[in-house]
Amino acid sequence: MFVTRAACAALFFFSAQATAQLLAPEIESGRVERPAAYAKRFMVAAADPRAVQAGLEMLRAGGSAADAALAAQLVLGLVEPQSSGLGGGAFALTWTEKEQRVRSFDAREAAPAAARPDRFLDRHGNPEQFMRAVASGRSVGVPGVPRLLEVLHREQGRLPWARLFAPAIRLAEEGTPKTRRLARQLEHETLLGEDPAARALFYSGARIVNRDYAATLRAIAARGADAFYQGEIAGDIVRAAGSDMMLDDLGRYRVIERTPVCGAYRGYRICGMGPPSSGATGVLQILGILEHTAFGRAAPGSVEAVHLFSEASRLAYADRAVYIGDPDFTPVPVARMLDPRYLAARARLIGERSMGFALPGTLDPETPGTSHVSVVDADGNAVALTTSIEMGFGSRILVRGFLLNNQLTDFSFRPESLGRPAVNRVAGGKQPRSSMAPTLVFERNGRLKMALGSPGGLMIINFVAKTLVGVLDWGMNIQQAISAPNFGSTNGPTYLERDTKIEELGDALAERGHVLNFARLTSGLHGIERVPGGWRGGADPRREGIAAGE
């Protein structure tokens, strides 16, 4: 058995003492430096040790990567409720070794059928205040996670469905300590406590005992996802949202299997989630632009490397804003956005000084995409699962032990852009644009090389791309690449991670015209990479997760 020292306690049962040992290394800054984890047979990397343990429990029992990812996600819904859960959505990317096949599953939340483009405009026709929209039923989209879990289990699961729910039910009924990160977020949260049920659950002590969540899990374990989308649970969701969501909206929700978006970089094949996620397209655009610059000769973490990376991400985010939306409502020109000739032309816009703000490219006429779990099982199958309820604590609406998302605020508040309908405008049944970027990387011979992903809102694309160049360009291991300081741009300021060595580049970057923003950039990357004899895992030191296996 090969694990990091921080992960050792995760290999035992969920006792209060073991859980306390798992969480002890976390420090107030949220940064805990740790070595990479190693395993010969299988591995799980996730945002909380208890979720990792749930996944390992399934793998030891002969379960698949999908089984492990599902069990881990159900525990995350309890111990990291501010980030993901049954009330949210997800994207899953899977690799099956026997079939040599990448599949991508879209479980993004959908707007109610009655939703209109002016959903987030005030009576004067102006976008309403953001947090007012967030903390309301109008921000709640139809959740996708329960249906995704069912689809993944049906397609790739091995263990009995109800078996996957046991760790989360046990923890929810017996109670488990809050992480320091959750406790800190609750201290700064001003809206959640207005809900009496949420106040009783989250503010009543140092432990979380969530019997309502356990009861919800028992219902789904017994009757499948229909227990969530029909009947009493669905009725409670509709009543709690109190907007235009109807029972029919939940009843008609379906997971969509979409074609993965894949591209080449430095001889590797990189695959991710396509629209409505901008994740894979954005990551591949950044990497494709960098291949046409001197980035490969720039020293890791140097002024030149950060300058080129930030300019490439600026160009990618400019295209993202104009071209990417729900492909069931708007044609999305992914192939043209990733055309090497187009990316080479975009790269020629990068000079010695920052462009500050990039304009979207002009595409040639067409001819006839938060928490994250990475798993590799004993057969070499893999799952990269990124899940979210959007903002911390979502809409602040608690139903039967889980929080509802606020994903509909990911739509454009203004229905028009540049004199035409915004590609990401609200519409009934439509999915909002996302930045989630679960990613799989393959070697030239087709073997799986890496599985990774991250939370982080709009910056997810930068976080994932930075980790990829760390491994593929700079020769770092997965843990080193994850731990390296974050940087990049979303087509505004150039962000540099506060309290890291990357801050020292500020003056030199400012001389090149960069407008700088020193921010916390709290990623939550979790990844696994193939190494001789097995697997190496990395967990983001900015959060309390681990990687472990055997």
Walk me through this protein's architecture.
- This protein has 550 residues and is of the alpha+beta class.
- It has a domain at 5-257 and 370-455 and 524-549: Glutamine Phosphoribosylpyrophosphate, subunit 1, domain 1 (4-Layer Sandwich), CATH 3.60.20.
- The strands form six sheets. The protein has a seven-stranded antiparallel β-sheet.
- Strand 16 and strand 17 form a beta hairpin.
- Helix 3 (65-79) runs antiparallel to helix 5.
- It starts with 15 loop residues before the first helix and ends with a strand.
Describe what is shown at a glance:
The chain is an alpha+beta fold.
Give a quick set of tags describing it.
single chain; 33% helix; Glutamine Phosphoribosylpyrophosphate, subunit 1, domain 1; globular; 550 residues; 18% strand; disordered N terminus
Q: The CATH topology of one domain is what?
A: Glutamine Phosphoribosylpyrophosphate, subunit 1, domain 1
Task: Describe the largest sheet.
Answer: 7 strands, antiparallel
Instruction: List the total number of helices.
Output: 19
Specify the helix fraction band.
Answer: 25-40%
Terminal-residue CA separation = 4 Å
Q: What spatial form do the alpha-carbon principal axes imply?
A: globular
Number of strands: 23
- Beta-strand content estimate: 15-25%
* pLDDT averaged residue by residue: 91
Placed side by side, the strands forming the largest sheet appear as 1-22-21-17-16-9-8
In CATH terms, what is the architecture of one domain? 4-Layer Sandwich
Quaternary state of this entry equals: single chain
CATH superfamily of one domain: Gamma-glutamyltranspeptidase, small (S) subunit
Radius of gyration: 22 Å
Look at the structure and give the CATH class of one domain.
Answer: Alpha Beta
Category by helix and strand content: alpha+beta
pLDDT < 50 runs, ≥5 residues: 1-30, 365-369
